[in-house]
């Protein structure tokens, strides 16, 4: 399910697929680089001269012999025992980068260190002088000049590093933004009004044009840039003009319908006159951001198609900085909500205006910051209204599965927003703050960060290989890489999921202490409820990449419908049966159950599609071992954290000490237990880290 559009890094939060961009988790594999670009990527990371684990170099993937199922590499348990000693086992991460080898160094024999087989010396031409066959000894080879920067593989590496750094910084600044939001508006109804209003523009954008724009129109854009005589400039300007016109009209309609939209999102807020007025005012400031979201996405994809990836990932940082500065001004004038006790009845019109204008300005700056980069890339923005006969209508018709996919995600979000705001307001009146929609969003932001950083990074490296193997009909290679992605990401995701359960409360009392002790602890309970759901949430992201590699977008849609329906039903049960203060925690727990169901259905469908075993026994065995190592680690780490907060309290010092002490205990116990259980992926990861550190 999707959380509101995350302007921090241009990513929506959530995913049946996650949304680590300003995109829904639609049927495109990765928001920073659409599927059509990734599938044809060149190799993405060079190998060091020794290899990460001392394993012999392999030829580039595209030069390996065609695969035959009976010749495919067996798993260790299947390989016959050799009669000779084996070299050190290959690090589980090393084969991510088998597509490249380091350039041959000085004195490297032909065929060594280049990833290419040695080429035989051509025979002399007929009639050539005999002296050509007996050359004097060659002088000692001189070191070749330093390799020039700018090779294709190096360029991809630099682009990937720029994007990864931009995403990380965007998420970190977005997290700071959430902290100042909670400090300024609190964890009760006032904070919910801002959060609900802020969710509206992203939801409308994604439902109307966002998903189709990224999955259908952008591939058409790249095709036009490749095939058209003008490099696709005319097509890009037509698309940009069309998006601006459509979104401009959409903004006008949405602003006029703001009261109805607020009621759609939260009947509880709409029934409270003071809260409703504040929420509608916020919404009318925020809804114009729909226009700037679309403009930013189109401009960013135009730059991506010209191999300029940094601006789209870094400009959201400007947005976050503007909003953080805005909230800083608000805090300077009014103080924290805890000290000022601001509420929906006491916040001033000037305060609402300050936050509204500042939030809108953030998206304006984010979009306009793209223009200098477009000019530097040689693209000039010119409005073009000659839309007919240029493929835009056909592209729109192709987007139907994406639109349905996104609709299924957003329908769940609307229902959950209704439940969370209703229960949160009732719980606040009963003396339990921090149990509403803002608490849900804040906990979700923390919970999704590991998946967005770890799983997405692993699959960004694997997806081009999986896509090439799928295109070649090499199901065994797809299976192997899918298994590798699941097991590699699980090494970090599984213990982190247990860490959220064990240390969720000190995490939130440290980060959201401005909401008050009771409110921050409520945030912690919600994070704990989310905790273990991180495991199926991450696994589903990996499994769905295989469908995208086979260019199947319909199955992810059906899978999302199943997840959404299950989440809505389970959340409704929580809303009816649980006390108000625990409803949102129940919704968070239901999120993980829904994704457990979703990944099991997706796994069976993928196995039927590929008509082969998906290495399920090995994957399940790895997850069980990691969970077995995480359980005692979480018990001991959580116990240590509880003891420290009992002695020092839940303030900043006590929370920091509990998080540090409990986290250290959890990490050590997990590592020692996993080593005893012979989790080979953990051993490989540790070996890789040590080799990169030179130890």
From TrEMBL:
It holds the Pfam family MurJ. Residues 1-153 are annotated as: Disordered. Coiled coil: none annotated. It is found in: Cell membrane. The chain crosses the membrane at residues 168-190, 196-218, 239-262, 282-305, 317-334, 354-377, 398-424, 444-463, 489-512, 524-544, 556-578, 584-603, 623-645, 651-672. Residues 33-46, 60-81 have a biased composition (Low complexity). Keywords: Cell membrane, Cell shape, Membrane, Peptidoglycan synthesis, Transmembrane, Transmembrane helix, Transport. InterPro entries: Membrane_Transporter-Flippase, MurJ. Residues 19-32, 136-147 have a biased composition (Pro residues). Signal peptide: none annotated. This is Murein biosynthesis integral membrane protein MurJ. Its main location: membrane. It comes from the Bacteria.
